[in-house]
Amino acid sequence: xxxxxxxxxxxxxxxxxxxxxxxxxxxxxxxxxxxxxxxxxxxxxxxxxxxxxxxxxxxxxxxxxxxxxxxxxxxxxxxxxxxxxxxxxxxxxxxxxxxxxxxxxxxxxxxxxxxxxxxx
Length: 120
Hints:
Elements: E1 9-13, E2 16-24, E3 27-34, E4 42-44, E5 48-56, E6 58-63, E7 66-71, E8 75-78, E9 84-88, E10 94-102, E11 111-114
Antiparallel strand pairs: 1-2, 2-3, 3-10, 4-11, 5-8, 5-10, 6-7, 6-9
């Protein structure tokens, strides 16, 4: 994984990027940046839960087919198995902190149901 000058690993994606801020036994912390009009795949995980803290911008999240708009300061709890998606509905990047917790935190623990980038 490449490491930037802040000591975080960064991963570029078609919707934006994520930076791993910290990780340890059973947890990983990411800063996720979603570009305007972009969204992540509609997905879930079998082995991890997630907790999101919106730090800037605005977004529409979908949790088990129920959409909700969120902004800076809002938090979102995503239990293991819950389908979820975040979409940037604003004109500036949406940034949130994602805390993953579980027995396995690999990127291959993603089940995609819908994806704008052909990854289903």
